[in-house]
């Protein structure tokens, strides 16, 4: 992902069993989902979130059959 200044950034991403369930837990804990679940064909599903301190992170579910 690119930052507003155009420089690339590293976004830590954690694997979860279910992206939608993990996103709901993020919101219940005071965080935000800033990029809803989307598919990466042949890889799986990903969403980007902000924690309560404003730190961006990803949640990922591997699924080689994702389309």
Helix content: 10-25%
Number of strands: 4
Report the sheet with the most strands, covering strand number, pairing sense and barrel closure: 4 strands, mixed
Order of SSEs, N→C? EHEEE
Strand adjacency order, main sheet: 1-4-3-2
Count of runs of 4 or more consecutive helical residues: 1
Shape: flat
N-end to C-end Cα span:
21 Å
Structural class: mainly beta
Whole-number mean pLDDT? 94
Give me the Rg, rounded.
Answer: 12 Å
The stretches of 5 or more residues where confidence is low (pLDDT under 50) are none
Proportion of beta-strand residues:
35-45%
What's a quick, concise take on this entry?
The protein has 67 residues and is mainly β. The chain contains 1 helix and 4 strands; from the N terminus they run βαβββ. The model has no long low-confidence stretch (mean pLDDT 94).
Layout of secondary structure:
Blueprint: E1 13-15, H1 19-28, E2 32-40, E3 44-50, E4 56-62
Parallel strand pairs: 1-4
Antiparallel strand pairs: 2-3, 3-4
Describe this structure in words.
By secondary structure, the protein is mainly beta. It is 15% helix and 39% strand. The chain has 1 helix and 4 strands, in the order βαβββ. It has one helix at residues 19-28; strands at 13-15, 32-40, 44-50, 56-62. Strands 1-4-3-2 form a 4-stranded mixed β-sheet, covered by helices on one side. A hairpin with a 3-residue loop joins strand 2 and strand 3.
């Amino acid at each position: 992902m690119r930052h507003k200044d155009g420089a690339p950034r590293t976004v830590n991403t954690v694997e979860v069993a279910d992206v939608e369930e993990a996103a709901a837990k993020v919101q219940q804990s005071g965080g935000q989902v800033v990029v809803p679940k989307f598919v990466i064909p042949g890889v799986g599903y990903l969403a980007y979130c902000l924690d309560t301190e404003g730190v961006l992170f990803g949640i990922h579910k591997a699924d080689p059959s994702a389309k």
